[in-house]
């Protein structure tokens, strides 16, 4: 299938065809964390979104150079270090390690390059010097500021009008800037703060300059994709464009990808509101794949609202996929025969055969994971129906088709980090976790179900109903279906 990946470019506001500058090689830069605290669900969405993007591009046969930075010097880092009586360097490095712990728990692949801001001070100084040389930046009181008026296209990413922004700006008392819209590239050091030598005196870099310097070093003056959250569009990414294009005289980035915000029960996440959820808070209660399923059930550009009911829906959806995989894994090829006629219709065969192309069609359309999940469920529905129609001695070709389809399903779901575990083990573990709070164990539940099955065979309906009610009192709900009796834990 010809590759036709179209991505929504924030710069143009349209979906555009991905056309790497270097044929077959995508260069991607994503803004990473400011390392002063534990990561929250917003960080999880960002990391998982770009983890998915990189996995998909590589699956499609493209080489990807993925760079994601660490901001390890910043006002917030300095303030938190002072609160805790430690150095900014120690605090930043500690939370970088905590970040890795969270990402490993989520199963996020490491980027190819993970530069730290403090390790690239010379590159930042060189970029600032070039801007000063071109009169696009100026020193003032030990600081250095970018001249926003020197870049006529300022505001092109965010869609903001510079004149409107100027009209709404106010100049603070004793401000060293020539104009209120000018932004800092280099900050003079204050007593007790980390500092580096520079042509303008001891100080440290401003936030925006680090990404311009590091992306240039590792990806070049112009590269394919720059990503981050919508909150970074202005001023961070807007300022990156102004700095980079001002200094280099070239287009900075061809395509900009921004993911949507995360809310908690329709409210902005905030510690003051008591709805601040760290990745660890969530993983204490949910398997990492459930969080992944939840995040990818919504298109990356859309708002994502976290709630217990949404996570329960994600749990049910993921378990449905695993149940199908487990059931087909259990099919024994030794019980098949080459003499039994195939029950697969041409329509079923064609549908299963189109699984990968349908998945690609969804994902080529701006990484539409929600639509791709719909393809998974449609396939599972077909697989379950075929499996239920198998006789006692099914056709070997039918079993082979089912198993091949499941292998393809697993491979494609793995791009979202789903279906990575042994299905039977995953489901057994999930059941153990779910019944832990129900004052009963799995063995007792299975024993009572077996007793009930025997009672129904003997037409002992009274005892059968008694068992159902006994289990229901412990929030264990029985479901009788074509595959026999199954059970779930009621959550409401």
TrEMBL record:
Motif ('KMSKS' region): 268-272
Catalyses which reaction(s): tRNA(Cys) + L-cysteine + ATP = L-cysteinyl-tRNA(Cys) + AMP + diphosphate
Highest taxon of the lineage: Bacteria
One BP annotation, GO: cysteinyl-tRNA aminoacylation
Classification via SUPFAM superfamilies: Anticodon-binding domain of a subclass of class I aminoacyl-tRNA synthetases, Nucleotidylyl transferase
Keywords from the UniProt entry: Aminoacyl-tRNA synthetase, ATP-binding, Cytoplasm, Ligase, Metal-binding, Nucleotide-binding, Protein biosynthesis, Zinc
Bound cofactor: record note: Binds 1 zinc ion per subunit.
One family name in Pfam for this protein: DALR_2
Presence of keyword NAD: no
Names of required cofactors: Zn(2+)
Sequence motif: 'HIGH' region, positions: 33-43
Domain Cysteinyl-tRNA synthetase class Ia DALR, residue spans: 358-427
Cellular compartments per GO CC: cytosol
Protein's UniProt name: Cysteine--tRNA ligase
Gene transcribed to yield this protein: cysS
